[in-house]
Design brief:
Distance between the termini: 57 Å
Radius of gyration: 20 Å
Number of helices: 9
Shape: elongated
Length: about 220
């Protein structure tokens, strides 16, 4: 049955207006973004199908254009809708980090990194460069590797820190395996980067390891 034939209180848009966003399921929120369904399938059915196919919102938003458009009836227009919404979410989370000390907003940093890295299928190493007041100057994805391994070159991290005139930085990388527990190699790399950056008077404030549903902070565990 088309959504417009449903009782008013059960339609996703009207439900949102009456009860707020938290009252809606993931599929209902997706239905509002998708706006229309496909022949024989309304927008809510389509939202449920997408979640079932990819397994989670994180995987859905991390899907490549090829993966997304391989689903019958979906194409570039819907793919760009979801990508634009995700990028707006990233930018909204990043705005406060540019305006105040990033260390005063650890939850915001975690949410930003989860949205940025949580669903990636390959390991990615990022650096958030900060000014002397620990406000975000820029975030850069510096290295990308195959599943489980990325080659990180300390000299390149130092070079980018100097280029941005950064006073401090936050390191972050993802574990596509799904576990946010740092490996021994992660700890060795962190120490190596700390030593290299100390030579140019740039502090490493934290190193986050990001998985799909969890984020581990080196600083919180006293590993820095």
């Amino acid at each position: 049955m088309p959504i417009h034939d449903w009782p008013t209180g059960e339609r996703p848009r009207e439900k949102l207006l009456q009860r707020g966003t938290q009252a809606l399921s993931d599929a209902e929120l997706l239905a509002i973004i998708l706006r229309t369904g496909l022949p024989g399938k309304n927008a809510l059915d389509l939202g449920r199908e997408l979640l079932g196919h990819f397994g989670s919102l994180t995987r859905l938003f991390a899907a490549s254009q090829t993966e997304f458009c391989a689903i019958a009836g979906l194409g570039e227009a819907r793919y760009t809708q979801l990508q634009a919404m995700q990028e707006l979410s990233r930018r909204a989370l990043a705005e406060p980090l540019r305006e105040r000390d990033a260390l005063t907003s650890p939850a915001q940093v975690r949410n930003y990194l989860r949205l940025l890295l949580g669903g990636r299928e390959h390991e990615v190493f990022c650096v958030i460069f900060l000014d002397s007041q620990h406000r975000v100057l820029v975030m850069e994805e510096l290295f990308r590797g195959t599943l489980g391994q990325a080659s990180v070159y300390p000299r390149e991290v130092v070079k980018r820190a100097l280029a941005h005139n950064a006073a401090a930085l936050i390191l972050a990388h993802n574990h596509p395996s799904g576990a946010a527990t740092p490996s021994q190699a992660d700890r060795v790399l962190t120490d190596t980067l700390k030593q290299a950056l100390a030579l140019v008077d740039v502090r490493v404030l934290d190193h986050f390891v990001v998985a799909m549903h969890d984020v581990t902070s080196f600083a919180e565990h006293g590993w820095l």
